[in-house]
Amino acid sequence: MVLDDDVQVREGLVYFFEDEGFSMVEAGSGEEALEKLKECPVDLVIVDLRLPGMNGTAFISKAHEKWPDVKFIMYTGSLEFNIPNELLSLGCVSSRLFHKPLVEPELMIEEISRTM
Amino acid sequence: MVSSKAKIFIFKNEIYFSGLISLAVVILLILSILLPESASAAKKQYEILLINSYHSSLKWSDSINKSIKSEMDKLDSPVIIHNEFMDTKYKNSPEYMGLLEELYATKYSDNKPDVIIVSDNNALEFLIARRSKLFPGIPVVFLGINAFKKEMLHGEKDITGVVEAISIRSTIEAALRLYPYANRVVTYASDMPTARHNSRIFLEKQDVFAGRARLELKTGMTVEQVVDDISKLPHDSVVLILSFLKGDKGVLLPLEKTVEIISSESELPVFSFWDFLLGHGIVGGQLVSGADQGKIAGEMAARILGGEKASDIPINYESPNKYMFDFKQLNKIGFNPAGLPLNSVIVNQKKTFYSQHKAKVWFAVGLFIFMGLVILVLWRSAIARKRIEQALRRSKDMYDLVTMGTNDGIWDWDRKSGEVFFSSRWKEILGFSDEEIPNNIDEWKSRIHPDDYDRVIRVNDLFFTHKTDRIMVEYRMKAKDGSWRWVMGRGSCLRDEQGKPYRIAGAHTDITERKKAEEELRRLRNYLENIINSMPSILVGVDSNGVVNQWNFKAEEMTGISSKEACRMNLVEAFPGIADDYARIMASIEKGTTLVDPPRVLNLKDESRYREITVFPIECDNGRGAVIRIDDVTQRVRLEQMMVQTEKMMSLGGLAAGMAHEINNPLAGILGNLHNLRRRLYSDLRLNDVAASEIGVSLKDMRRYLDKRDIPNLLDGIADSAGRAATIVRNMLSFSRKSERLFEYYNIEQLLEETLELASSDYDLERRYDFKKIKIVKEYASGVPAVYCDGTEIRQVFLNLIKNAAEATAEKHYIKEEPCIVLRTEIDSDMVLVKIEDNGPGLGDEEQKRVFEPFYTSKPVGSGTGLGLSVSYFIITDQHKGRMQVESVKGEWTRFTISLPAG
Predict the structure, then answer these.
(1) Cα→Cα distances B789→B649, B744, B786, Å
(2) In the beta sheet, which residues pair with residue B540?
């Protein structure tokens, strides 16, 4: 699943990963993502930090409670953001943080396969 | 007689008044004695027989006889008066009468008198009975006859005379007027014939005075009884003595004696009817006067002697009584002066003396005045002398008082005698008592301070060498305790005819305290001067005319004008830089308002520095003035400017970061989709083949078409532009990055060296700016402490600055010098400074202000992002809490200074 409020960024990622053979679900907000996860269970969610409504970290906390097996990779436009230790300690979040724009999305595939 | 007694009385009284008057009177009396008396001449001689009823020592008889004699003396012819005194009060028996008849018959048988005058009833009775025998045909004049009736003459002719009647009514009237409170008149009388007669008349008057006074008659009492009786009378009584009375031994007392005893014992006013009683204690009354009766009788006798017949001269029935009063008696009991009848004769009154001795009195008064004047003159001259004496004394006293009382020591040098006087205060100033040091000039000289000696003597000699009359000199004298006392000596001199000073005197004032105060003042002044001079500000004092009166060290230092030169110069003259402000400074002094100018560039002798001018108006003794303070606030101004810059940069940084963030998403969309586009066109994705075969198009052909249409280039163009945008955005995002992860201790010098190496190997730099031709000067301070920082970022900053410096040198055309970059490290308290300086074209003021702003660049468009210095600025100020400044002189040099906290 790709969770990003920017449709261009989101679709860009979805296209990329579909081309790579992944089955993709997309969501524009944390709330929408939680709804979609109920119907279509996924293995991994790529989460943008800044979101309307609940932000990325809040979403991860909530999603992890319901679906503890789901993994998460975070990406953001902020340079000063660091992944909080509480999230890292959950064990479901990749320690590697990706920054927008993703010049080489292939790096993310490596991280996905490592995480999974 | 009465008057002479009064005279004596007055004389006595006057003694108490003034010895001078009595002296004058005595002189006058002596003078009057010396006056020659006129003698009377005798021609034809008459003889008169004067028969008195009583004896010769009676005042009554005496006054009658004197009056008659004085009348006789008026005649041209001499008159012999034969005086016979029957003394009937003593003896009046028929035998005695017979013997008197015999005596007179014998005595006057041959020598008959021309006129016979008989005095009083007894004599008239005696003569009438014997006239035909003794003195037939001789005219008779009578007087003093009481209760006269024609029958008493028994038909005798050639008789005339004057009747005597006491004035009972008038006297009572007078008594009641003089003593208005009296409402009782008590009369004492004997039972003798005349008294009985008068008593009867008295009692007849009771009706007349009814309602005003009660008239009482008491007879048959002795004098002693009368006195006793009077003492019992109420105080509203008046006593009337109507006749003589008997004494306690039954002897008849003369009327004078009777009156004397009664009046001396009585506290009531005593009245009677005969003038001779005046002086014996009676107040007075309308009195029978022996003298007046005698005068009338004398006149009658004279007329008879002159040839008139006695029978032709009518009998005078009017008793010639006069109001007469004894002033002493009136006063004894007190009286109402308004009750005195008109034409009263007052005896025992001072006036009487005056009226009788007017000339003498006036002479005496004149003499008295003259003597008084003499005394006055003498007295005045005595007073004048006394005044002079007093003035002298006062002057002496004043001198003594001044000498004693003044706080100045007095000295006095008599040059002629060589005598010297020092007042006790003079000595006291030096701590000595009066006796402790001698009065001589050497004593003085020996006490003068050696340093002052010559000066003092020189000043003192001015009296002799110059014609100075006054000197003043301040010097020290040795006191008793060995300390030095400051004195102010003043002196003046008196000169003789040759102009030589013969006396010099003056005063010593103890001015030790004043000198101490002066010293203290001087010390304080120095202290204040030191404070003023130690101030880091330029402090200039000016008066209301703008003339400098204070000029501190800083002012000297900054202007190169010494305080001595500056004082008395005009402010503008001393301080040309301030000329533009002069008018406002003077206005500030005028208005008394403090003037504070904002800092601005004020050129003194040094390079342009920011200065702040403050004018404090002050009120001083001689009017208004001001203290002008000029502070070098360059440091402060720079700091303030930097703070403003920082503020601005921070807000710009925040704005830029926010913008970058917003741009980042669309950029991510572009790049992401571009990436997908390329992959779907050119990569060997399985899905590409699937899709191509589905529509029957070979990928090979499609790619040939794309190449033909130059699509890959277009995609590269998008990628390039988006990539550049991404770089910008990343830089902008870094403005607000607050990462400390990579902080470590670095040696700044080493970081500089590494950066320099990087720069020199930078292909771009090498290619475009010929970096190797730039002279690199390194001025590293020793002992620069390590700096806790992000080495990568600091390297980036240094590289940025070195690149900029290299670029700057490339823009300038060097003639004499060569392009040069100076790298310096310095230590400034707890900061490490890194200065990177180039001798490029420099920056203008506007450029200096804006050089750190994002996207501000002086380079041609496209040659840089315009973010290099901004990023550097944020790295230094925001992430490293340091400072970054730029200084430059246009056309000369540019210097970036980075300050980083040490340690």
Answers:
(1) 21, 5, 9
(2) B551, B628
Measured between alpha carbons, how far is B354 from B350 in angstroms, rounded to an integer? 6
The burial of B272, by beta-carbon neighbours within 10 Å (0-12 exposed, 13-18 middle, 19 or more buried), is given as: buried
A58 vs chain B: nearest CA distance in angstroms? 21
Provide mean pLDDT across the span B623-637: 85
Inter-residue contact B86 to B100 (CB < 8 Å) = yes
- Summarize pLDDT for B343-390 with one digit per residue, the tens: 888 887 755 566 667 788 888 888 889 998 999 999 999 999 998 988
Contact indicator for B240, B185 with CB cutoff of 8 Å: yes
Q: Tell me if B686 and A21 make a contact (CB, 8 A cut-off).
A: yes
* B663: closest chain A residue by CA: A77
Q: Where are the beta strands (DSSP E) in B214-280?
A: 214-219, 237-241, 270-271
Return the SS3 of B546: coil
Total residues found in chain A within this entry: 116
| Cβ-nearest to B664 among A13, A18, A100 | A100
CA atoms within a 13 Å half-sphere pointing along the CA-CB vector of A9: 27
Residue of B126, B262, B278, B252 whose CA lies nearest to B188:
B262
Chain A within 8 Å of B671 (Cβ-Cβ)?
yes
How many beta carbons lie within 10 A of that of residue B746, not counting itself? 18
CA distance A54 to chain B (A): 18
* ipTM confidence: 0.87
Gap between the Cα atoms of A29 and A24, Å rounded: 16
Q: Are B258 and B246 in contact (CB under 8 A)?
A: no
CA dist list (Å): B194 to B221, B243, B244: 16, 8, 10
Q: Any alpha helices (H) in B481-598, and if so which ranges?
A: 512-534, 553-559, 563-566, 571-574, 582-591
Q: Is the dihedral of CA B100, B105, B106, B107 positive or negative?
A: positive
Measured between CA atoms, the residue of chain A closest to residue B661 is A77
CA B351 to chain CA centroid, nearest Å: 59
Sequence-separated (6 or more) residues with CB below 8 Å from residue B93 = none
Q: How far apart are CA B398 and CA B901, in angstroms?
A: 87
- Flag if A102 and B686 touch (Cβ within 8 Å): no
Quote the pLDDT of residue B8. 42
Phi, then psi, of B410 in degrees rounded to 5: -100, 140
Give, in order, the Cα–Cα distances in Å from B233 to each of B57, B229, B236, B342. Answer: 34, 7, 8, 30
Question: For residues B599 and B614, what is the distance between their CA atoms, to the nearest angstrom?
Answer: 10
Q: Tokens in use for B202?
A: 């008295």
Q: How far is CA B415 from CA B83, B256, B301, B396, B494, in A?
A: 101, 92, 104, 21, 10
Cβ B175 vs Cβ B195: under 8 Å: no
Strands B623-632 and B538-543: antiparallel
- Cβ pair A77:B675 closer than 8 A: no
Residues sharing a CB contact under 8 Å with residue B1, sequence separation 6 or more, in sequence order:
B59, B62, B63
pLDDT of the residue at B809: 87
* Best CA proximity match to B876, nearest among B712, B650, B662, B652: B650
pLDDT digit string (tens) for chain A, length 116 residues: 999 998 999 999 999 999 888 999 999 999 999 999 999 889 999 999 888 889 899 999 999 999 999 999 999 887 778 888 888 888 888 888 998 888 788 889 999 988 88
Question: In chain A, which residue's Cα lies nearest the Cα of B685?
Answer: A19
Instruction: Find out whether B472 and B489 touch, Cβ atoms under 8 Å.
Output: yes
Of the candidate ranges A65-79, B219-233, B701-715, B732-746, the one whose mean pLDDT is the lowest: B732-746
Q: What angle do CA B331, B332, B333 make, to 5 degrees?
A: 95
**Which chain B residues have a beta carbon less than 8 Å from that of A103?**
671, 675, 723, 726
d(CA B58, CA B280): 13
